[in-house]
Amino acid sequence: MAKLTMVKAITDALDEELARDEKVLIFGEDVGKNGGVFRATDGLQAKHGEDRVFDTPLAESGIIGLANGLAFTGWRPVPELQFMGFIFEAFDEIAGQMARESFRTGGKLKMPVTVRMPFGGGVHTPELHSDSLEGLAAQTPGLKVVIPSGPYDAKGLLKSAIRSDDPVVFLEHMKLYRSMREEVPEEEYTVPLDKAEVKREGTDVSIISYGYMLQESLKVAKKLEGEGINAEVLDLRTVAPLDEEAIINTVKKTGKVVLVQEAQRSGGVMNQVASLISQEAILSLDAPIKFVGAPDTPYPFSAAEDQWLPNAADIEKAVKDAVNF
Amino acid sequence: MTQLDFESLKHNPEYETLQVLNNDGEVVNKDLMPDLTDDQYVDLYKQMLWSRVLGDRSTKLNRQGRLGFFAPTAGEEASQMGTSAAMDKGDFLLTAYRDIPELIKHGLSMAKAFQWSIGHVQGNEYPDGLNAVPPQIIIGAQYAQTAGTALGLKKKGSKNVAWTYTGDGGTSQGDFYEGINFAGAFKAPALFVVQNNGYAISVPRHVQTAAPVLAQKAVAAGIPSVVVDGMDILAVYEVTRQAREWVAAGNGPLLLETICYRFGAHTLSGDDPKRYRDKSEEEEWFAKDPLIRMKKFLANKGLWDDDKEEAYKKEVEDEIDKAMAEVESQPEQKVSEFLENTFDETPAAIERQVKEYQAKEGN
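Above: the input entities. Below: the structure tokens describing the complete assembly.
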């Protein structure tokens, strides 16, 4: 089995879905000849042709409007927005239009669109290239917001997203693109949407996370094993709507919870998780919920991002605080 | 008959407002006169009368509390029905909220149009084969989508055209430009209609832009554009027919501006045109009424009279009564169904809410 980076796993998923279904179209800024600024679509235009994989003019609302119109006429669009920080330009076409069509039409009009967007910090970008805005998408009824934490899941989740008749916002953490490799089977597999996964079994404390912070959480869990703390790590994978059962199960199992997200503390995904735990599993807790997130400022200047981003030390402290409460 | 040279209108168009009939119903431009049978001339007028009666009656029904949202259409009948008359059933239609008459002409049942007005989901459940999406509320969003719809038709090898409508205010939106620019870049079969009725609610046309002509915005996108007297259905029909033919032939998108006037309020939700329009301006436009000039044209040819007018109005009133009767027996809407319709594959977290609401609804 080949050990692949996440970006290669994503390219392979796109390649296979283009081959599998002639209705799949990939488009966006620089996705054609250039293969995308992160090379996620590298080689796909040459292999599948300019009719299937094509560059668009530089306008995010136009790109998602194009996707919506293509969906109206029976296509299965997989547009790319170059960075999630550019989503504000396209927010009506995503949240005001795409997300609402099925509801709006009594379930008649399906929108099988997967909007891919790189996001997340730690790679020294200019402003508005590193923001974790999944909370905005998560508050939009009708969208599934999917965030893989590594190559295996990225490929399987992306294939499920493309095949789904629901609109999916598919967020790819930039720091995960090439920082790790995983074994990715060559044979066909998918990873289901709407399902969290326990990535590491444990009994003392539950770390709940997603995306790049999931990998940091796993590192902390491994380290603390040597100190006699046995942490369970739950990967949300689909951050909206939440897999409530998986969350409640892990809380009931360990009685201690650390919620970890890279996004700012207010209004994001983990506040929804905390709310759910408070409503459904509070009597299983024997320590307050610990929360690791970024401070409530816009994403910082790149030379200051290390001071701003949540990191393994923050997670470790939160886990110890929970365990020693 | 003159064939308009749309290719030459791409780059340095000199705009004149194309007209066939003057206010007195006289043909002033034989070259652009559509080549129709007497029955077809009568039919164009009947479509406008149908829309006028529907608009008047919708206003009354709204006042009685039997209909909900309505954006008055009086004054825009030539623009709406003249363009609509050139539409093919296989064409895909993306309208704004004032374009209900075009949607009905394209195949939406009047009962569903009324359900949309009242706020019932069934109004948006379009039957298979109706190539349209529900009226757009966000001004301009439909322009960006139309580029995609047109590209989708082209990729399927279809010979049909994607049509969209907006108003003068809509041309100020970013999505307006993104839509015409994308369609131009992809040479997609889209027909963009700008119904310039002079006002975006209260804001007059000249406040929207320093551009002397709205249609000239198409020049920046490299697509042809043409301006037509939107109070003259013969001019609107003929120009639209030729435009559609040009687009359907694979030449790329085209923008059509119709100069018209909204006789009534923006919507029936509290807008009062007296706050922003002079009576003299309104009088000037009432004299250009698209129904009056076409009726004069038909009367001069001996094709229409008051008896026919009354008989046809009665027919339309009956059609409206029938549609209202259907609407008034519509089923109660259920939140549990809204939840089920929000996703194709309903996640467990939403399924829980479905059950909660089903219990409330006594299922």
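Note for the figure: Residues 6-20 of chain A form the longest helix (15 residues).
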